[in-house]
Amino acid sequence: MNKSIINLIIDALLFLCVMAITGIGLLMKYVLLPGKETAAVYGRKVELFLFGMDRHAWGRIHLIIAFVFLGLLTLHVVLHWNMIVSIYCRLIGSTVVRRIVAIIIFIAGVFLAVSPLFVKPEAQELERKGRQHLEKTNYQK
After folding, report:
1. Can you tell me the distance from the alpha carbon of 141 to that of 135, in angstroms, rounded to the nearest whole number?
2. Which of 86-104 are b and which e, b meaning 16 or more Cβ less than 10 Å from the residue's Cβ?
3. In this predicted model, what pLDDT tens digit does every residue of 62-93 receive, in sequence order?
4. Are 62 and 25 in contact (CB under 8 A)?
C-alpha cells in the first residue's frame, strides 16, 4: 500500500475514534445517568442499560477506544514526523527556543497523561435522602 492510502485509513480511523469517544461520553453523561440522577428522573433508583451494558461497561469501552485513538495518533505523528519538524523549524527559528518549547510541551504532555495516577480523591459521606432518612427526621421533630 502506498503512504497516501495508509494516511487516509489512519485519518479515517482517528475520526471514527473521536466520534465514538464523543458519542459514548454523551451517552454516559445524558442517557445512562448515575444512580443519584436516576432517582430524580425516574422517581426511584434504577440501573440503566443499553445493549445489555451499564454506564460502567460503556466507560470501559470509552477508555479502550481512547487508547486505540492514542495509538493511531502516535502512528499518525510518526508518519508525518518530517513534515512536523520542517514546519516547527520554520515557525521557531532559534534552536535554543525550539528546544525549550519542545521540552515544555513534552513535560506538559507527560504531566497531563500521568498525573491522574498520582492524585488522591476526596472521600465524602453520602447524604441519605431515602425513606429511612425521612422517618428519622420525622421522629426528631
Report:
1. 10
2. eeeeeeeeeeeeeeeeeee
3. 999 999 999 999 999 999 999 999 999 999 99
4. yes
Angle (CA) 60 6 79, round 5°: 85
pTM: 0.77
Tell me the one-letter amino acid at 75.
L
List the grid coordinates of 53. Answer: 451494558
What is the rounded distance in angstroms from the CA atom of residue 76 to the CA atom of residue 14? 9
Cα(132)–Cα(97) distance, integer angstroms:
64
pLDDT average per 10 residues of sequence, the chain (141 residues): 92 98 96 86 87 95 98 96 95 95 97 94 75 50 44
Contact between 31 and 39 under an 8 Å Cβ cutoff? The reply is no
